[in-house]
């Protein structure tokens, strides 16, 4: 899934490409007719649906990560993205408090639908509410883009063209099945649809009827939206009865390089290493016997957590650690009235993705597994930085910093 609101991305178009935009537009129209239509027809899409979807549609040159015909794909551009920027900014007071305040109202208004979905899927209502709030402001945020313009552009000339071609066919199938609302189908800048912001293939796979009218309407029905989010998480492995995680204090004796879903321990074993909950309470007995994972999304520069497998189910909705953490935290605020994280966020982050990618490639040359040089400080990059720091006699902070640019190049 993707957020509707995003920081501005700018496609840098060379003069040569700009001069050839008209030619590229012609190629796009030819591609629609000669390449996409046969695939859509084979998927059961009618010609009437196809023609209506692409009536008046042209390329959207403002979308990110485009590779127009005749140009070459380069590495990560100098850009920042909210999901992977400075961690503390992701948890701005306005976004957290707004999602919490309206979420409490929605918890009362839709108590029956939430309870029904929790019984059926095992997913707590507070988690469903937090996702709903993050994705579409509980259905209140305007979804501005023409879905077929977005998906058509990305399928024709993006860095992930095969993926978006599949999603474009799925969107046509959604319209062809008359599941979508009448009129132009609207989406986010990434092609996500409806109040849960499902990609079209996920609409087909996970949208369900929550209000009993025989139709899965994630655009206008709150009950269907709630049921569909719960169904998605359930089908992706949500473990009933388990929490998502706990904020903790990590003593200096426990290295931040122990982070990651591939380095799990029983939660009681983490406790034996000296990790404690910030609340002062012991870990729940039912959780203590089960596996947990260290999460330090800003390294030593921010809050730390012991999370459960359910945290990584939340990441199936959006691959960002910060997204999953936001959902868990806001959900807890909605139900338990908890406050801000105990630990503050240091002023880390804010690097360009191209800077982080250079660091990642340098670490790869030294034999570290950073999870790919994509310019995003995921857990593999964070702990690789920590291991590099420890190997060079430095305290491990486990997060990319500006001062590392000269040493890791």
TrEMBL record:
Domain Transglycosylase SLT: 27-332
All residue ranges annotated as the Peptidoglycan binding-like domain in the record: 353-397
Keywords: Lyase, Signal
SUPFAM superfamilies linked to this entry: Lysozyme-like, PGBD-like
Annotated signal peptide: 1-18
Enzyme class name: lyase
Molecular function, one GO term: peptidoglycan lytic transglycosylase activity
Gene Ontology biological process terms, A to Z: peptidoglycan catabolic process
Pfam families in UniProt: PG_binding_1 (PF01471), SLT_2 (PF13406)
Signal listed as a keyword: yes
E.C. numbers: 4.2.2.-
InterPro entries: Lysozyme-like_dom_sf, MltB-like, MltB_2, Peptidoglycan-bd-like, PGBD-like_sf, PGBDSf, SLT_2
Protein name as catalogued: Membrane-bound lytic murein transglycosylase B
Gene: mltB_2
């Amino acid at each position: 899934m993707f957020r509707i609101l995003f920081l501005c991305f700018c496609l840098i178009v060379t003069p040569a490409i700009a001069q050839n935009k008209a030619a590229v537009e012609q190629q796009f129209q030819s591609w629609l007719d000669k390449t996409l239509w046969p695939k859509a027809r084979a998927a059961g899409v009618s010609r009437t649906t196809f023609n209506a979807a692409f009536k008046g549609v042209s390329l959207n040159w403002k979308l990110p990560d485009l590779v127009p015909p005749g140009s070459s794909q380069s590495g990560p551009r100098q850009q920042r993205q909210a999901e992977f920027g400075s961690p503390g900014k992701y948890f701005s007071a306005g976004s957290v408090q707004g999602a919490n305040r309206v979420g409490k109202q929605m918890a009362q208004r839709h108590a029956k639908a939430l309870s029904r979905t929790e019984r059926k899927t095992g997913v707590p209502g507070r988690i469903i509410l937090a996702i709903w709030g993050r994705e579409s402001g509980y259905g209140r945020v305007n979804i501005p883009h023409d879905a077929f313009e977005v998906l058509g552009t990305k399928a024709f000339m993006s860095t992930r063209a095969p993926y978006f071609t599949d999603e474009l066919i799925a969107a046509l199938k959604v319209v062809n099945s008359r599941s979508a609302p009448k009129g132009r189908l609207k989406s986010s800048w990434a092609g996500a649809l409806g109040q849960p912001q499902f990609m079209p293939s996920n609409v087909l796979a996970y949208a369900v009827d929550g209000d009993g009218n025989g139709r899965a309407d994630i655009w206008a029905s709150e009950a269907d939206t709630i049921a569909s989010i719960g169904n998605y998480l359930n089908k992706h492995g949500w473990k009933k009865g388990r929490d998502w995680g706990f904020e903790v204090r990590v003593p200096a004796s426990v290295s931040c390089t122990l982070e990651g879903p591939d380095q799990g321990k029983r939660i009681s074993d983490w406790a034996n290493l000296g990790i404690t909950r910030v609340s002062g309470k012991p870990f729940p007995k039912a959780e203590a016997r089960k596996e947990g994972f260290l999460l330090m999304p800003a390294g030593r520069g921010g809050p730390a957590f012991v999370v459960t497998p359910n945290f990584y189910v939340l990441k199936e909705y959006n691959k960002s650690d910060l997204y999953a953490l936001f959902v868990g935290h806001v959900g807890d605020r909605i139900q338990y009235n908890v406050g801000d994280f105990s630990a503050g966020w240091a002023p880390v982050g804010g690097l360009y993705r191209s800077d982080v990618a250079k660091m990642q490639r340098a670490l790869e040359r030294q034999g570290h597994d950073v999870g790919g040089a994509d310019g995003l400080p995921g857990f593999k990059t964070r702990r690789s930085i920590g291991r590099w720091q420890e190997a060079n006699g430095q305290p491990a902070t486990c997060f990319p910093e500006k001062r590392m640019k000269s040493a890791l190049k």
